[in-house]
Structures are given as structure tokens and as C-alpha cells.
Amino acid sequence: MLKRIVNSLMCLSCQGDLSFYDKDIKCVKCGRIYKIKNGAVVFHEENTKDQSDSFIFGLKIFLKKHPKLFFFLFYMLGVFTGKTSKKAIEHVPRGSLIVNVASGIKVIREDVINVDLHPFLGIHIAADAQKLPLKNSSCDAVICEASLEHIKNPVPAVQEMYRVLKNGGLIYIIVPFIQGFHSSPSDYYRWTKEGVKELFKNFEEKELGIFGGPTYAFTSVLREWLAIILSFNSEFAYQIFSLVFLVILAPFNFLDYVFSRYKSADNMASSFYFIGTKKSKINR
Ligand SMILES: [Zn+2]
Q: pTM for the full model?
């Protein structure tokens, strides 16, 4: 995989070309070395230990190491009515450069390059979304699913996605609207449908719709509320109740197969997806 993409990578110090050097990767211009760890080129590494006291965050880290279990639970407990990234890229030819920014361990398609802050197994590039080590106009498609809210400065991150995309290249994004705080390890933002349009104004909009519907939004808020009032102010009890109600309320989410289609559902969708292409002229 790395052999296929090394020519599209660039040095973060001097924007020079990179090439294989011993077991690592080296900048041919300034000589900076980027280690390869777990099969990922490491441009950036962040410490996640700060949040290890949180039970749910610990559980997330555990599940990230067990991807099959993670995605089984993810699709069992949530109902998502919007177009998936897999579907969105079905017409992008195999072997194109498709980058999933802040991917986690998800495998959308076997030729998709996973970029994440942490070199987990299954990550190809460990890098910050605000400073991608990819050359200008090098990517055929960029994906970023439910991750922009965890990035401190989402506008520069979107500008980076714009920079690395080829003209006409495809972008696929999911952003949350009505959802409680969820650390991963941090959580900063939510977007309305109008907010999504504003954030991606430099892209030609192809599709903008509900990904997680109003029932999912409602059950997740109800779950949080029940967990808060039943917790008696114990953080541990709150997290346990939160998981219990996640399971109990999950079946109601199937109602979204009907209600996500209603026009007014935009007003309290759980999340939106956006599909666009890179325009050559940008709007200020
Ligand atoms: Zn360099």
C-alpha cells in the first residue's frame, strides 16, 4: 500500500518528495526521516492517555483493536438512512488515490488510504488532518466520516482536503448535528444543514442529506437524559446507563427509514452527509 502512495506524499518540513530509506521513509530534499510503525508512516503522533479514566473512551479504544466487533455493534445499534461512503465512491475506479481522513480503523474499500492521528493497525498515514502530508491536487477522492467535530480547527482541515483534491475530485463528509458530547478524545462542534453548506462552499454540491435521522437524534438525547438522572451524579453509573439505554432504545431507530424522508427532519437530524466535487474557483 505504501509503495503505491509514496510518490503522492510530501515532507511536512520542506514539502520535498519522500522515498523509502532502510525500514523508514526519508525526505529527499531535507533528509527528515519519518518512521514506519504498524505499517503506517508516522508524520504526527498524539498521546491518548489523558482520557484513559473514562470508561466509554477505554471501551472505544478496546473496540478499535477489535474492528469486527466494533462495526457489528455500530450497525446493530444505529440506523443510518443516508448514503454511505462505500456507495459514494463506487464510481471512483479501483486503484485511484482515495484518502479517508481521521478514518479510525474502518476499511471502506481495500484501496482506500486511512489517515488518522494514531498509527493503529489498519492506518496507512499517521497525520494531523490540519496538516496532511499529501501533495497539492494528488487525490481523486477524500472521505471524512463523523470526525470534523473532533478537530479543533475544522475550517483549515476542510481547506487541506480542498488542497489535496484534484480538480473535480470527490469529497464525502459526515458531520453531526443533534448529538450529545462524545469524546474521541475531544469533541468541539455541531453543524446545521446551513452550516454544512457554508463549510463546504468551495465545493460543488452534489448531494446533501440526512445520514442519521430524527429518531436516532431523539433516542440518543433521551438516552443521555435518562443516564444523567439515574446516575445520582456518579460518572461511572452515567456511563453504564448510557450503554444500557443505547441497547434498549436501538430498535426505535428503525422509524427513521420513514421519518428521515420528511422535509422537516432536517431540523433535528442526528447527522448530515455531504457529497461534492472540487471547484477550481474558490468563494471567499
Ligand atoms: Zn523535507
A: 0.90
